[in-house]
Amino acid sequence: MTTTPATTPSVAPVDARVPVRRLVPLAAQHVLAMIAAPVSTVFLTSGALRLSPGATASLLSAVLVLCGAGALLQSLGVWKIGARLPFVMLPGGAATALFLQIAQEHGTPTAAGSVLLAAALLLAVLPLYARIVRLFPPLVMGVTVLLIGIAMIRVAARLVTGPDGTGEPSAVLLAALTVLATVAAYLLLRGVWRQTAVLTGMAAGTLLAVVTGIGEFTPAAGSGFALPALLPYGAPRFDLLAALPLLIFSLTTLAEITGQTVMNSETVGRTPDPGRDVPRVARADALVSLMGGLFGTSLMVTSAENVGIGRLTGVRSRFVTAAAGALLVVAGLTTPVSRALAGIPEAVVGGSSLVVYAVIAVMGVEMLRRADLSAASGGPMAAALALAAGLLPLLVPGLYDGFPGWARTVLGSAVVAGTLTAVLLTPLFARFSVPSDEPPPVRSD
Predict the structure, then answer these.
(1) pTM score, whole prediction
(2) For residues 194 and 191, what is the distance between their CA atoms, to the nearest angstrom?
(3) Residue-level pLDDT at 314
């Protein structure tokens, strides 16, 4: 009698387990690619609010732990919280700026209360999301992802040039060498090693900085351990008018979450399902942000920082970002580690980020290619105007300075302005589109 061997069901790449010997370096690569954002956010907050060194260390610990908890929640998922996709979580840059604005105008307790209100509002509106998911066709998603990539390239460039945009030649050179090292690693390495091209590029950039003297590896000052402090600014104070900028921002994050979720789903080979996955991503964002409000941070947001790495390396497993989350929690609780991570030269991180974010922008272009961009549909005009609305605040940063605060929040964000424009114009042009007189293309098989 002949027996047929049992077949093992295939596991989707996103759910595939990764051996520990590969898991650790891949997870470390994700951590190093995103570590500059939480560290720089903490030191920006500390300087603006004039926090003591102890309070700064505590805030850094809190942010790293929350980033790690968010990555674990998004990657592994609990009930309907977290999309089980390879995501990491960061303190939102725009949200931090709004947090500091509220803190300087109304006090830190009001700023902390505003974070709690904004996170609660995001949770409250999620039941309505399924009704509006049809507003995000491929054209809107392509515009959103392309603007995410472009906006992040600008953020990466600021790491090289500094906030004033006038970079030192040595910093620009160091960033360029880091990019070259990343490209060389991607072209020359094979197998598992090729998957760590970004990590290899960052390590090479840091080594070059130290050896040549064009940069410095300077860990943050301090010693010992500092656990997160609960309610570091005292009891939160709730003021709806003062919180309005963050409330508006929390609503507009749904557009960015949608783009990132679709982009990540496509990267890992999962059929995008925004109606199911976006609320799960947003719930995790809201819950971690609620914790952030209690520990002194601004809103925490799921980030596309790691999506480009997944695209470059071809590693789609969500367990890699889960391991990155665990490393972040350990780094947050082991303060000397977090201070050492802060010592990586910003130009090195900026150079690596430029590669990752450029890949994300190309993904947006790929999505636009799948949209209906025929002249009869009006798609080209809708996409053009949406990109113009999104690029304006990037190209002319002070364009909306004279507008009310709520208008600056919406119009001054590239992703929000561009996405909302695409959402409004796409159905409008579709409604007034004219049938094309051109015959359908003839296929030759």
Answers:
(1) 0.67
(2) 6
(3) 74
